[in-house]
Amino acid sequence: MGLSEDNIISNIKELLEPLLYEKNLELFDIEFKGLGSKGILRVFIDKEQGVTVNDCAQISRELGRLLEVHDVIPGSYTLEISSPGLTRALKKPSDYLRYKGKTVKIKTLEDIEDRKVFKGILLDFVDETVSLQTDGVNYLIPYKNIEKANLELDL
User: Are β-strands 77-82 and 39-46 bridged in parallel, bridged antiparallel, or unpaired?
Assistant: First the structure.
């Protein structure tokens, strides 16, 4: 039975999470593409103060060794470690709490007051609902109605 990309990602998480925890880093996301050919493994890490180039290099070395020892990925692959960036996606409820007061862009699945795209200040996340202020108006956006959300640069 061959390994699926989901199985590979699950196995990588098992190896990676204790390593990140030990270094006060958190796993933001993992992408793996190209099973059966030359694959690309992208690991996005984060921490409160922001990720440094040193953090990425250290995790790359240590995770690379773990992946080789445990033979997690069949065939050849490229390993990339980076931060989620300044316009990072908001993927889970804790992200909305963490970035209260920041400028965000939210795209909804269904219209709210005749619009699907909102850009403004993230006010709060309570009872599975995001509060956002844009152009002096407060909007309540149900979490389950969010298709995509990310931080925006404050320029």
Answer: parallel
* 77 and 111 co-located in one domain: no
Which one, of 23, 86, 91, lies nearest residue 57 by Cα? 23
**Same structural domain, 70 and 127:** no
Could you tell me the pTM of the whole model? 0.78
| One-letter identity of residue 94 | S
Structure confidence by residue, pLDDT tens digits, 3-20: 778 888 999 999 999 999
Domain count, the chain: 2
User: Per-residue pLDDT tens for 25-62?
Assistant: 999 999 998 766 688 999 999 998 889 999 999 999 99
Whether residue 111 is found in the same domain as residue 57: no
Residue 4's alpha-carbon distances to 1, 13, 67, 78, 100, in angstroms, are: 9, 14, 16, 17, 37
Q: How many Å from the N-terminal Cα to the C-terminal Cα in the chain?
A: 51
Question: What is the extent of the structural domain holding 62?
Answer: 5-82
Specify whether 70 is located in the same domain as 115: no
Q: Residue 59 is encoded by which pair of tokens?
A: 């995790």
